[in-house]
Amino acid sequence: MFQSLEYFSVASDLATYSTHRHSVLAQNIANADTPGFKSRDFKPFDEIYNGKVVFERLHDDHVLDLVSFEVNHPGNSSPNGNTVSLETEMIKSVKSRQAHNLAITSYKSGLNLLKTTLGR
Amino acid sequence: MDSLANSMDIAASGMRANAKRIRHISENIANADTPGYKRKLISFKQITNSESGRGLVAAGSVRLDQSAPRMIFDPSHPLAKEDGTYMGSNVNMIVEVADSREAQRSYEANLKIFDQARKMSSSTLELLRR
């Protein structure tokens, strides 16, 4: 029922997107000192959200439409080929956390609205 | 939820690798005056976990730094040669302290990510609460 209400599907998609992005950012930070590692990210949510369900699970953890790409930082690599900047990754992770918060809170307030409508 | 569990795994592997790095740095500092000691270097590598397909980071094998050791002048030392010098270690304190700062910063960043993932999953579970 909740998927036919666009409000809830956007909120849950944003929450899922944020957790996947957080996973990619965690990988960047863990590999901040690995030689040759290039930092990765997703495109912003509003660019890839097309009004329908964004994620299709083919098998296990493979998520369609969400492919991380290497961020192009010209001139930002250290001598061993690593392009991860800790500050940038931390700020991105905070933003992703805030987006997740926004999604969860909107979802919850939508639920509250429905409950009020039902008189609970 | 499996994506957040992945985040926590990745952050934990980063913390383990950095902890190992700090251990080797502290070994180097402790042995800075040991004659003939060569400082240990460690580099990170990515290991691909075949089940989840996510890349974790691990500390690679330990190498010895082959740069030339310091020659210390002390004729009274039992290992001193004819000209009064003996071979010290090749540990440079400033390099080790800077390295330990960097390792600490990486460790704290990984810890922060772990904490964030934990908070995100617990706030999602809050939804179930009345």
Structural class of chain A: mainly alpha
Low-confidence stretches of chain A: 56-64
Strand order of the largest sheet of chain B: 1-2
Query: How many angstroms separate the termini of chain B?
Result: 20 Å
Number of strands of chain B: 4
Our count of helices of chain A gives 3
As a percent range, the share of helical residues of chain A equals: 40-55%
Compressed to H and E, one letter per element, the order of chain A equals: HEHEH
- The outline of chain B comes out as elongated
Between the first and last Cα atoms of chain A, what is the distance in angstroms?
18 Å
Order of SSEs of chain B, N→C? HEEEEH
Mean pLDDT of chain A: 80
Largest sheet geometry of chain B: 2 strands, antiparallel
Q: Layout of SSEs?
A:
The complex is a heterodimer of chains A (120) and B (130).
Chain A: H1 6-30, E1 40-41, H2 45-48, E2 69-70, H3 86-118
Helix pairs in contact in A: 1-3
Chain B: H1 2-30, E1 40-48, E2 55-64, E3 71-73, E4 85-87, H2 93-126
Antiparallel strand pairs in B: 1-2, 3-4
Tell me about this structure.
The complex is a heterodimer of chains A (120) and B (130). Helix content of chain A is 52%, strand content 3%. Chain A is built from three helices and two strands, in the order αβαβα. Chain A has helices at residues 6-30, 45-48, 86-118; strands spanning 40-41, 69-70. In chain A, helix 1 runs antiparallel to helix 3. Helices cover 48% and strands 19% of the residues of chain B. Chain B is built from two helices and four strands, in the order αββββα. The longest helix of chain B is centred in the C-terminal third of the chain and has 34 residues, at 93-126.
Q: What's the quick description here?
A:
The complex is a heterodimer of chains A (120) and B (130). Chain A has 120 residues and is mainly alpha-helical.
